[in-house]
Amino acid sequence: MTTIIRAGAAHDFLALVPVLAGYRPARSLVCVAFEGNRTTAVLRHDLPDADRADAVATALLGTLCRIPRVDAIVPVAYGDRPFGQGDGMPNRYILDCLARRAEEAGFVVRDALTVAPNGWGSMFDDDLPDEGMPLRLIEESAAVSEASTEVTELAAGLADSAADLVRIAEPDDALAGRIRVILDGLPAPDGRGRGDDETVVDLLERVLGEAVDPLILVERIAAGRGDGSPEELAWLLALADQPPIRDAMMLQAAFGPVVGELAFDSAEDDRLRRDADRGRDASESPDSAPPRAPGEHESVDGFLSRLMLGRSTIRPDVDRVRASLEVLGTAIGNAPIGRRTGALCVAGWLAWALGRGSAAGALIDLALDETPEHTMAGLLHRFLALGELPEWAFSEPLPGAPSATDRAE
């Protein structure tokens, strides 16, 4: 985030960390990175035990080294172990390990803090009481209340955890009922089961108009022009259930209509090739098919694959992604159980594209709980388990452009 906020003391800084992160950390190791006096990133990892401290420090430092111009850090450990247990400051093991490794890597460690259920403290405070410093210093800090309107609004909208950075709406009975009726009237993607109600199809065409075209629908939603109608949300859920369209929707929401059109065209070409393969005589060798020109399909497909895997420095449009996630959150919250897996995959990937790995993981876990054998959900689960951030998280934004990864976990 680019909002300027100032902390005059350690407890003021701790009051601001949730605002910087966008959520209230718990059982977490949070590392705030600086370029000079400006915060450039907030990294989060589950608070490790002592056996994994070095591995987690290595992972965090590997990420920090890839962020341009970071020169200093402040790690903060949030844990459940209280002060006053007779073994010193809680979570000192991970702070000491990370601070030592960071200094060896050339970073300035401005402070190293811990927040426990009954107090807080700095690793650099030689006079830290056994019971820690009182939490009320953080709670009563004026660093947030006397900050700019933007900061106070951010503080008022904090998520409860990193996993909640993408909010799923509470269901509305009337909206959920209409969505169910529409989905029940649509044919399943594989042509089996569910309905094939021409009245429902006619309704969608009449209400959505040209937005029955996935490319137009996604563009309308990403541009913040969606109407949130039952028809729009149901059609979005239905499209997200179709793998080639789902993948194209993800890319278009993040990178715009040109990439979206490429992705939809690629999906259609793939469908035509598969149809041709199914129609080929069993005795005909696949090698007898007409050869493709050098680079045909591969170059476009390779480009799209790199975007999907985050192996590109092209940055997503943050506003488009946020607008899409907001609508997806409403659709998912009002979708029947068993009919939202595809939308959860789309939302999970978009969250990851913003650097919100914990939120992405939570969404994909929901998808797998709903459909354990879902191919895309399984792939995303294994991919997210690697803990990789997209390359665009480490590229320089264009002047005036918002960061593609306000926060990374």
TrEMBL record:
Biased composition (Basic and acidic residues): 269-283
Superkingdom of this protein's organism: Bacteria
Start and end residues of each stretch annotated as Disordered: 269-299
Protein name: DUF4192 family protein
Provenance organism: Agromyces bracchium
